[in-house]
Design brief:
CATH topology: Hydantoin permease
Bound molecules: phenylalanine
Helix content: over 70%
Largest sheet: none
Oligomer: single chain
Radius of gyration: 21 Å
Shape: globular
Order of helices and strands: HHHHHHHHHHHHHHHHHH
CATH architecture: Orthogonal Bundle
Number of helices: 18
Number of domains: 1
Structural class: mainly alpha
Strand content: under 5%
Number of strands: 0
Distance between the termini: 48 Å
């Protein structure tokens, strides 16, 4: 068994979990999902989902991870000896590959924009030109694949150095910085002409725009953004110390993650309305809108550079946590050396990422269930793997796991109050299964 080294400080452990949670899900995906699903109404459903499912499932993953200090498979074997629940781990591993597959394509786009920002090419254009700039990138298989692979090189370089100190340090510095920069961009965006229309779109719910699919998307978005459902936080919390308050940490991660998502909305939507971009533009939204904000700012060149650099780091702290799921699993369960586990993980990731990159150009006509490969990976990751995975975790901790383990973990063996326990159990036992039921009805076309 590989030697387990924990996070050095409580702050470092939180920063790493927040680093995993805060990423493209907040800055890139949240604004465009909100844009496509009616703005304020989507955000309201999203926040409800964070409260009744997000925080309880984060806590459940923390309970499984910290009570056993092991990866998901051996944790489930220890907690339920003789039972087959551990098989769920394979779904988590598959899910983590699919997320990192489509995710690294967007990270590749971020790298290209970072490069363009460094070249000074992001200023002095019309909205249409920004539109064309993004189209030219995704239409070119070489550029798309090239940037994605370059991103993966960075990712696996970090992994190969070992991550214990790396993640903790990078995340502790980058996360507060990202937060500050986002605030500056929000202020700039709010000063644009017509900013109030963006705020109205974002904060006054128009339920006529919200479909059942939108509600499902809000749930999937919450799970993707919080990094739950594929055992990522089980892996991280297995390195937590025994005296941290899990309830406090879970709430901190959820609150900070949601704050970054909403700030990203405040940064994007006033500009969307001010520049006349369609809020429903989908995955290309931030790439068409952000350069317009940069060029309105004094020192726009530097801001653009700083922004993409930070988004790059935010996405790296997320992909690191994603790749750590299969890597820890292969090392601990299949007795592989770290370099070998990294090599296998890199191989699978590259295949999926290249397929996802090509789905915008060479493979754009390859469709399944009316979706291209990228959308299919994005949808199946957030809706099938993460959402259903999260619900499995909820049902497992709510109904199956010995209550004593839950109580011990929440109270640190009786030293803390554990006031959240009744709320946690209620959400896990009832809210989660009822939601599964409705999602199942929806997916099977019954409603
Ligand atoms: N939560 C990350 C984001 O919002 C994505 C992620 C999903 C990271 C699952 C790790 C595990 O960008």
């Amino acid at each position: 068994m590989a030697k387990r080294v924990g996070f050095a400080t409580r702050l470092g452990a939180i920063a790493a979990a927040v680093g995993s949670a805060v990423g493209l899900g907040n800055i890139w995906r949240f604004p465009f999902e909100a844009g496509q699903n009616g703005g304020g109404a989507f955000i309201l459903v999203y926040i409800i989902c964070i409260l009744v499912m997000g925080i309880p499932v984060i806590l459940s993953e923390f309970i499984i991870g910290r009570s056993t200090h092991s990866n998901m498979k051996s944790a489930l074997k220890q907690l339920s000896p003789g039972k087959k629940y551990y098989l769920f781990t394979y779904i988590c591993i598959l899910g983590s590959f699919i997320v990192i597959g489509f995710y690294s394509v967007v990270c590749g786009w971020i790298l290209e924009y970072l490069y363009q920002a460094a070249q000074g090419n992001l200023s002095g254009h019309t909205p249409q030109e920004y539109n064309d700039m993004f189209s030219a990138l995704v239409d070119s298989p070489w550029r798309c694949v090239g940037w994605t692979l370059l991103f993966l090189v960075f990712n696996f370089l970090v992994m190969s150095r070992g991550i214990e100190k790396g993640i903790e340090r990078v995340a502790s510095v980058m996360m507060p910085l990202l937060f500050l920069i986002l605030l500056v961009f929000c202020i700039n965006s709010l000063l644009l002409p017509g900013a109030s229309r963006g705020l109205k779109f974002l904060f006054s719910p128009d339920f006529s725009q919200l479909t059942l699919r939108g509600v499902l998307d809000a749930f999937g978005q919450a799970f993707l953004s919080l990094s739950i459902g594929i055992s990522c936080l089980v892996t991280y919390s297995s390195y937590f110390k025994d005296d941290t308050s899990l309830a406090k940490d879970a709430t901190t991660v959820a609150v900070l993650d949601t704050l970054v998502a909403i700030l990203s909305g405040v940064m994007i939507f006033p500009a969307v309305f001010s520049f006349g971009v369609e809020p429903t533009a989908g995955p290309r939204l931030i790439f068409e809108v952000l350069p317009g904000i940069f060029q309105q700012m004094t020192g726009g060149y530097l801001w653009a550079l700083l922004f993409f650099l930070l988004v790059f780091f935010a996405s790296l702290t997320s992909t690191i946590s994603l790749s750590e799921i299969p890597i820890t699993f292969m090392i601990e369960e299949h007795k592989m050396s770290r370099p070998r586990a990294i090599a296998w993980t890199a191989l699978f990731t590259v295949v999926l990422a290249v397929l996802a990159s090509l789905s915008f150009n060479v493979l754009e006509d390859v469709k399944l269930f009316c979706m291209n490969i990228f959308d299919l990976m994005d949808y199946s990751a957030s809706i099938i793997f993460m959402l259903l995975g999260g619900l499995f975790t909820a049902v497992y901790v709510g109904w199956i796991l010995d209550r004593k383990v839950v109580h011990d973990q929440l109270t640190n063996g009786g030293r803390l109050k554990g006031a959240m326990e009744p709320y946690l159990i209620f959400c896990l036992r009832y809210v989660a299964p009822v939601s599964i039921f409705f999602i199942f009805l929806y997916l099977t076309g019954i409603i």
